[in-house]
Hints:
The structure holds two protein chains of two kinds. Chain A contains 15 helices and two strands. Chain A has helices spanning 2-18, 26-49, 56-72, 78-100, 105-125, 152-175, 177-187, 189-194, 199-225, 230-233, 235-248, 255-281, 285-290, 293-307, 311-320, and strands spanning 142-143, 147-148. A two-stranded antiparallel sheet of chain A has the order 1-2. In chain A, a hairpin with a 3-residue loop joins strand 1 and strand 2. In chain A, helix 2 (26-49) packs parallel to helix 6. The two termini of chain A are 25 Å apart. Chain B has one domain: ABC transporter involved in vitamin B12 uptake, BtuC (Orthogonal Bundle), CATH 1.10.3470. Helices cover 71% and strands 3% of the residues of chain B. In chain B, a hairpin with a 2-residue loop joins strand 1 (2-3) and strand 2. Chain A binds chain B through residues 52, 99, 102-103, 105-107, 109-111, 113-115, 117-118, 121-122, 124-125, 235, 239, 242, 246, 285, 288-289, 291-306, 309, 327-329, and chain B through 42, 90, 93-94, 97-101, 103-105, 107-116, 118-120, 228, 231-232, 234-235, 237-238, 242, 268, 271-272, 275-276, 278-279, 282-283, 286-287.
Amino acid sequence: MKRLHRWGYGLVLVGLLVAPLLGAYPVFVMKVLCFALFASAFNLLLGYAGLLSFGHAAFLGGSAYLAGHAMKAWGWPPEVGLIAGTAAGALLGWVFGAIAIRRQGIYFSMITLALAQLVYFIAVQTPATGGEDGLQGVPRGTLFGLIDLRNDLNMYYVTVAIVVAAYLLIMRTTTSPFGQVLKGVRENEARATSLGYDANRVKLTAFVLSAALSGLAGSLKTLVLGFATLTDVHWLTSGQVILMTMIGGVGTLFGPVVGSTLVLLLEGKLGQFGSLLTQLSGWEGFTALGQSVTTAMGVMFIFCVLAFRRGIMGLRAGKRRPAAGQDGA
Amino acid sequence: MQLFDIPASVLLSQLLLGLVNGSFYAILSLGLAVIFGLLHVINFAHGALFMLGAVLTWVGLNQFGINYWAMLVIAPLLVGVFGVAIERLLLRWIYKLDHLYGMLLTLGVTLVLEGVLRAIYGASGLPYSPPPALQGATQLGFMFLPNYRIWVVVASLAVCFGTWFLIERTRLGAYLRAGTENPRLVEAFGVNVPLMVMLTYAFGVALAGFAGVLAAPVMQVSPLMGQNLIIVVFAVVVIGGMGSIMGSILTGLGLGVLEGLTKVVYPEASATVVFVVMVVVLLLRPAGLFGKER
């Protein structure tokens, strides 16, 4: 099985490397990669620590703004901008985590949601974020003063390198002793505590790591697209990352990658699908609904919760062994 | 008359405005508490159902010529029926699962409801004026008090305390509370618990619908009006602690007033003060002001 996994990952990597040569639009693939990283970071928390954060948009968006501002207004080089964004995500995650971990279950989710809304309001009101217009025209610059990122192809391979490295880090984390303790805390917190582990500290570490990687995803997204907007910090984005993870399969390593790709593809094609239905049925409403990504997201949420809780990769995994504790995620 | 260099009229009018907002917080967090009590579902759809109440009110007047007073009864009923449908079709399948799934499922309902209504009515505000009997304002000597605002506060307080009385002081309420403690035992006594659960959900969301009707003339009626409100109400719930009915009413009102006061002293912070209070309360009392540590 391990060998099969390795082959699968190898194929994906080769696919990523040749995608632009085969005519894939690099900017879209880069966007997918950023969200795949975001969803994987989120899944590290939900799938392995069992904590449903409803405020992850704050890390994505907060870091996106900070890195964007640093690179645009202060003229920081891209590598420093990315590091600053990641550090900001980690710091914000530490603050959120320290507060939210005091409560469990739905309360934890509600608290992270409310804290993220605080960040949203700050983003609306701070002049540096450009308010409703967002932060526009962030320059890509040159990486280490060597690689010109204004070239889409250069940017593409840098993005692939960063996302793959971050993904390997997540993979390593889940198989490390720390990852095992994390799972132990998820399955039975009392038992982990009685074995001498500081459950809150373990959870906080996972939260900070997840937030830092989300911050990296956000700053990378700003670097790629050249802008950061209120959408990045809005709670709908927090909902979207939950959806991506659920569709792909909570607690599976590759699930969030599949989920984010599917959701973004769907988002892009939804309008065409709506127009097609209008042509077929003659009802204008389909066009309007096709433009409403919200509705589609809602339907997918309902479907996933009712009938598809294990997600795509979860179903695959389930064939090999009974999934343990996934429903408790 | 001046207080901290702020004209008293400004202070009082913001206080009143805060009390109006607080009334909405109170009704909504009360509905959430009632639903959570029996179903153990955090009803994320609460904000969307509040919005549905307001949009129905607008539709009633503009497409069917039904006036405000009639809608005050019709809209909550319709929202309640819609709630029955949600409970029967969706929620009842997930009671045995982790509570988080209830939150995610109702989030789905929220998104569908907002998306569909937005596709029909757009995102801009739909104008709605207060009914003739409540238009105008009363001169209090130091300020004009819009009559409609007084009505909102009075009506929502009446509904809140009516609900509190129903749950804490009547036989039906006793069944409800017993049902939250031990549904199987209550069922053994011959109470139809699934029916009770369904009606509780319907009642809880009808409260949200009622708040929506009240809000139609004071807030912009729009498919997006519930979106940010629900998160503030979640914060109210965290601050108050989910345990107590009275707690959610008092916390809701109190935070509305606090928000109004902040608007006078430091307007920039008024949208965030509730969240700041949440952080402080969590640091001091993780279970919330009225909550019990579980």
